[in-house]
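User: Can you predict the 3D structure of Rubrerythrin? Sequence below.
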Amino acid sequence: MGFDQYHEPPEELPARTRTFARLCASLTEEAEAIGWYEQRLAVEQDPEALAVMRNAQTEEFKHFAMDLEFLLRRTPVWREIARGVLFQEGDIVEAGEEAEEGAGLGGSGGGGQPGSLGIGSLKGAGL
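Assistant: Sure. Here are the predicted structure tokens for Rubrerythrin:
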């Protein structure tokens, strides 16, 4: 198993954080697979091959959704922001800003501090 998903020494991370990192890596891998299938489907001419690849891509959609749901269940702030963005009508960026503000993080990165990345406002809000 690769350990490139860690930015801190894995042995110093609690098991819950290592699991979270694994699911983040899995989410990324599923998104990449969805994109690869999209490219393959765009150029494939054989109808039977297309059917097989569409079925495979659908499986990747399911895996992506399951990974995302796991991560959202473990991260209440992320879940709250996602609820304000996903499946909403209108401008996506505006919905994101409103969701961020609704989560008490302010717009554009949180904290309401000019130039802030909002990282400080997330203390205690994570895992």
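Residues 8 and 34 are 29 Å apart (CA to CA). Residues 110-117 have pLDDT under 50 and may be disordered.
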